[in-house]
């Protein structure tokens, strides 16, 4: 135990999180999230690798999701009280490919521009035809089984009605770019060298976390209502933006976890989604209900209760690939994803 503590405290990952979030929060993060030794092997120093910077971002994003999802926070607190930890499998976010997204790059490009310099690459593409979306799994090239993945979905606005497209543009055309010119320059350096100076990494990290927010101005209630008629996913983006739609805990047996949480009266999904291969199984809490602000037809600010984010559970089996290598099945499944996405549908909440 002493050796583990020494490895953690002497790691670059710990140093960066202490610098950005403070010592108390860094300790909380390592207590909560299981971090494998290879992610701690980089010793504290003046240079931060892309892998450590990516892991730091992911850990801060996980806590951000817990702050938004009380059911997820309660579950994690119960896990910690029982002596357990969370294996952060992936985070999911939604983007919009629209005619005008303001200062923000369209669709997945808003995230690809920094996920790739951080060492992530598209592992698979998942058509989400029922939702008129496409999902892409971004997996880390340096440690694919250890660094949290991203499931980035993109809404294809051109597949909807003209009225819907107009409402989308009203909402997202006001978007700001959360990455400063300096941050974008640092990302270019990171892409070229796969590392940054510690001081630069500490400056960049908060801006990366800030990308997972609402970037547009307060939407009109009429636009929200028009979008809700055709796409629960776009309505969700209207109020929640690019926040984590959900964070996901990798558990040994998702069926057992679901039964346990259901017995406790927690708002778990009725069905476990099973991939075509049978190796990936997922379920989730229902989305939290949140109060959000809109502008009504008279220009006044009004509030409504809408679906927010949620917390998901996944079980992944290992398998042998064609070369005989034993791997964790890191893939997703289009049917599973579309079933999980229903958690933020107004009718499901």
Automatic annotation (TrEMBL):
Its EC number is 1.13.11.93. Keywords: Dioxygenase, Iron, Oxidoreductase. This is 2-oxoadipate dioxygenase/decarboxylase. The lineage of its organism: Bacteria, Pseudomonadati, Pseudomonadota, Gammaproteobacteria, Pseudomonadales. InterPro entries: HGLS (IPR009770). The keyword Iron applies. GO terms for molecular function: dioxygenase activity. Coiled coil: none annotated. It is an enzyme of class 1 (oxidoreductase). Its cofactor is Fe(2+). Belongs to the 2-oxoadipate dioxygenase/decarboxylase family. It comes from Pseudomonas rhodesiae. Gene3D superfamilies: 3.10.180.50. Pfam families: HGLS. CDD domains: VOC_like.
């Amino acid at each position: 135990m002493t050796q583990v503590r020494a490895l953690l405290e002497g790691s670059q990952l710990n140093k960066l999180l202490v610098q950005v979030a403070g010592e108390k929060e860094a300790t909380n993060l390592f207590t909560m999230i299981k971090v494998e030794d290879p992610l701690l092997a980089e010793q504290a120093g003046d240079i931060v690798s892309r892998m450590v910077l990516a892991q730091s971002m992911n850990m801060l994003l996980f806590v951000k999701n817990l702050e938004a999802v009380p059911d997820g926070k309660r579950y994690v607190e119960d896990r910690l009280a029982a002596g357990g930890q969370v294996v952060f499998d992936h985070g999911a976010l939604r983007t919009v490919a629209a005619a005008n997204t303001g200062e923000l790059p369209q669709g997945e490009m808003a995230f690809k521009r920094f996920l790739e310099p951080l060492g992530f690459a598209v592992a698979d593409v998942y058509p989400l035809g029922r939702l008129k979306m496409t999902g892409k799994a971004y997996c880390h090239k340096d440690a694919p089984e250890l660094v949290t993945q991203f499931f980035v979905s993109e809404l294809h606005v051109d597949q909807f009605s003209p009225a819907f497209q107009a409402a989308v543009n009203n909402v997202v055309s006001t978007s700001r770019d959360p990455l400063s010119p300096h941050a974008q320059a640092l990302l270019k350096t990171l892409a070229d060298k796969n590392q940054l100076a510690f001081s630069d990494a500490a400056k960049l990290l908060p801006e990366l976390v800030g990308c997972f927010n609402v970037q547009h101005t307060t939407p009109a209630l009429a636009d929200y209502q028009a979008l809700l008629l055709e796409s629960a996913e776009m309505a969700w983006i209207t109020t929640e933006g690019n926040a984590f739609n959900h964070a996901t805990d990798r558990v040994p047996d998702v069926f057992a976890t679901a039964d346990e949480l259901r017995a406790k009266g927690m708002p778990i999904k009725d069905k476990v989604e099973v991939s075509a291969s049978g190796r990936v199984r997922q379920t989730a809490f229902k989305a939290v209900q949140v109060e959000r602000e809109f502008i009504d037809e008279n220009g006044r600010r009004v509030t409504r209760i809408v679906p927010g984010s949620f917390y998901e559970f996944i079980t992944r089996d290992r398998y042998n690939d064609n070369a005989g290598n034993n791997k964790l099945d890191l893939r997703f499944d289009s049917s599973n994803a579309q079933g999980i996405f229903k958690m933020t549908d107004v009718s499901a909440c």
